Amino acid sequence: MNHTGEIAALSAAFIWAFNGLIVERKTKNIPPLVLNFIRLSIALILVTIITLFDNGSIIEPNITARQWFWMLLSGVLGFTMGDTFLFKSFQTIGARLSTLIYNFYPVVVALISFFLFGETLTSFNILAIVLVISGILLVVNKKPKDSGDYSAYKITLKTLLPVSIAILGQSLGLVTSKYALETLTTMAGTQIRLIGGLFGITAIFAIQNKWNKLNVIRGDRASCIAIAYVGVFATFLAGLLSMIAIKFAPAAVASALMSTTPVLVLPASWITTRQKIYPVEIIGAILALSGITLLI
């Protein structure tokens, strides 16, 4: 059996685990929109170069208007809306808590598919949703007494809003991209999705007239290196892997495997900064991931 999609999903999750920690620690002084604009630009340049060498043109030929529409919409929803607010969440409540709550998005994918496309929920689906929500609540309600990942962050409805918007954007972006990728190469899909994301962010910059904010990284070597990593690995490479996962595996399977990032981010945070992993975090992550597997 071909497991190309599943392997791609797990590979993307591994890259994203370190991405959250880097964004949290190395880009605190960079506005989320600026971070998103620069890393998407880096990824788009890389995809365009590869497309040029592969096809002799900067954009693959014979892409239909329908494919352009759905992938551009996916980019706006996933990159402009989803990732911008996810980066904001990294800065407001930390990478570990953000990523663990973000684990909720496969459930939202299932719900969107149910309400928009009539995909029915079985008793196992309902049980899965309960398990995922229970696991997330365990993590959110845990407040370590020592200087762990959460002590510097105030957990309120306001600080949880960015990650909630990120979940909605990512879920809608995944569902919309699934349609176009049925007859579109993953490289072309990734490129158009990046264009859509950049278009949305550029529109926000233009409306708010905040182009001067792009100067914030000047002279900040650590932030430039971090953004380069995010652009090359977490955006270009992991983004391409996620499109491969969505194309070759069922949406529920792909999203479930990509959501294993919460499990990976806990040991990653311990390896990089020796942050303590609490038993309740482990239990919450296991509960959430157990629920997600029932959705497959």
Mean pLDDT: 81
Secondary-structure-derived class:
mainly alpha
DSSP E strands, number: 0
Radius of gyration: 18 Å
Task: Give the topology.
Elements: H1 4-26, H2 32-55, H3 65-93, H4 95-102, H5 105-117, H6 123-141, H7 157-180, H8 186-208, H9 221-248, H10 251-258, H11 261-273, H12 279-294
Helix pairs in contact: 1-9, 1-10, 1-11, 2-3, 2-8, 2-9, 3-4, 3-7, 3-8, 4-11, 5-7, 5-10, 6-12, 8-9, 9-10
Provide keyphrases for this structure.
77% helix; 296 residues; globular; mainly alpha; single chain; 12 helices
How would you describe what is shown here?
The chain has one domain (4-295). Helix content is 77%, strand content 0%. The chain has 12 helices and no strands. The two termini are 17 Å apart.
In short:
The protein is mainly α and 296 residues long. The protein is built from 12 helices and no strands. The protein starts with a helix and ends with a helix.
